[in-house]
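Re: that backbone. Tokens:
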């Protein structure tokens, strides 16, 4: 509005006063940049509305289920309280089942797993557990044993109650179980064939609640299971295909990301060509707006590494990355820091929501209709991959009583690099006391265990809107209930 005012002034200012005009214009822009909001009122449908514009924040935001992740060891790291203090909401944990390659998982181990996930919940973070029988350390051969298929399927069934009970703090589940590091290659029990992989994948999808996704190492395995890529109508429906994401564990290492964009035969050989890569990347691009994509870099081939700033940011955006390892491969992370894109990646991994504008009534009546709308921009690489609740909160300024209004929208569809207008309509209870109410937006975790925990709510990338004690985002305006 201030800009429009200065444009009008320009029409009446002579050229000899151009210096004064420039000064006035710059002052106007300064006022715009310093203001937290701009409030205007007008009458629409006999209702007085306030239009509120919001100031963007460049601050690093600690939001759930996204960003750089750190690593923990299930059963060994007892105190995880410092993870958030270090700037992380995600941790990957390697769960080793080596001792159970030929037998049931012990009750003692299952209880240790439960205890570890309880600590994850207490610490206010989420975990990406990778389960394997074969985790070779540096210098060791990859051909250590994994487990036979019947053992694998039985172990998944044993873990199912834990997956269900602790779904709230399991961000996603890499498929695991098969081969070296659980990466679905180099299986000593021949599990890298399509039939075995399909059985393990189906068992994992059945064991997890329908709200959680499994990640596969190779896009070729996803395409083998579902030749036609996931489409918009199928996304977020809970069907098996809609719950299969990608975990790239050699991001940008060389031309095909160390076999990521290759076809893998029943002997675990890589078959690569530029056309194969193009086809698999096209498939991955089609599904990545709807599923979780993340992983890590790995040791690069110097002459063919693609870890430069331009390629890194372009591919993270193109394939909608939500998370990446903060410590491996260290030289790649160091390069990103040296080239000045580390903070950009930290801010843009996953979603980064900010308020653009809201239209909010100045007055509503008890027993009457309450309508408002707001526009959200997503400046991140991706949108949320797990369900998320959306609520309008009215909080009485005098007694702080909170009234919640569910908003029927899906934040998973607030896609990257887009703006999304959300329209809300609800009814004000006749019992709602008269008075002045703050208007707030709440994006909590929908699981009962985490719903009221502010560290699991989404913070918007705007100035002066966040309430850390509640997890609410303020619309920076009030309305009156008459």
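Recovered sequence:
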């Amino acid at each position: 509005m201030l800009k429009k005012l200065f444009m009008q002034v320009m029409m009446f200012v002579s050229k000899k006063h151009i210096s004064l005009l420039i000064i006035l214009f710059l002052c106007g822009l300064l006022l715009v940049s310093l203001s937290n909001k701009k409030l205007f009122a007008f009458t629409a449908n006999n209702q007085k509305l306030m239009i509120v514009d919001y100031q963007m924040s460049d601050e690093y935001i600690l939001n759930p289920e996204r960003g750089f992740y750190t690593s923990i060891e299930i059963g060994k790291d007892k105190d995880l309280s410092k993870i958030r203090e270090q700037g992380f909401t995600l941790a990957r944990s390697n769960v080793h089942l080596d001792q159970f390659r030929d037998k049931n998982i012990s009750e003692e181990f299952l209880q240790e797993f439960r205890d570890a996930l309880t600590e994850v919940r207490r610490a206010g973070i989420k975990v990406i557990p990778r389960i394997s029988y074969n985790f070779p350390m540096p210098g060791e051969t990859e051909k250590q044993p994994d487990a036979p298929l019947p053992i694998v399927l039985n172990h998944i069934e044993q873990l199912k109650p834990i997956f269900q009970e602790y779904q709230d703090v399991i961000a996603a589940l890499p498929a695991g179980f098969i081969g070296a590091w659980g990466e679905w290659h180099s299986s000593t029990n021949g599990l890298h064939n399509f039939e075995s992989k399909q059985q393990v994948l189906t068992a994992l999808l059945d064991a997890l609640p329908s709200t959680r996704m499994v990640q596969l190492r190779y896009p070729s395995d996803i395409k083998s299971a579902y030749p036609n890529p996931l489409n918009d109508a199928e996304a977020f429906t809970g069907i098996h295909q809609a719950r299969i994401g990608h975990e790239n564990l050699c991001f940008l290492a060389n031309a095909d990301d160390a076999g990521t964009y290759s076809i893998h035969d029943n002997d675990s050989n890589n078959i690569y060509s530029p056309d194969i890569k193009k086809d698999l990347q096209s498939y991955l691009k089609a599904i990545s707006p709807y599923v979780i994509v993340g992983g890590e870099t790995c040791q690069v081939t110097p002459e063919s590494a693609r870890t430069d700033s331009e390629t890194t940011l372009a591919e993270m955006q193109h394939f909608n990355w939500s998370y990446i390892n903060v410590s491996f491969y260290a030289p790649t992370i160091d390069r990103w820091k040296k080239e000045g894109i580390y903070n950009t990646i930290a801010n843009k991994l996953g979603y980064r929501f900010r308020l653009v504008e809201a239209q909010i009534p100045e007055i509503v009546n008890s027993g009457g209709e309450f309508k408002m709308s707001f526009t959200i921009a997503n400046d991140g690489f991706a949108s949320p991959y797990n369900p998320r609740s959306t609520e309008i909160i009215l909080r009485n300024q005098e007694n702080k009583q909170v009234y919640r209004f569910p908003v029927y929208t899906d934040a998973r569809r607030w896609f990257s690099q887009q703006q999304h207008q959300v329209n809300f309509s609800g009814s004000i209870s006749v019992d709602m006391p008269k008075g002045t109410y703050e208007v707030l937006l709440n994006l909590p975790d929908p699981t009962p265990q985490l719903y009221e925990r502010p560290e699991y709510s989404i913070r918007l990338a705007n100035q002066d809107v966040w309430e850390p004690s509640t997890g609410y985002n303020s619309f920076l305006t009030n309305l009156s209930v008459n």
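Residues 18-34 form the longest helix (17 residues). The mean pLDDT is 91.
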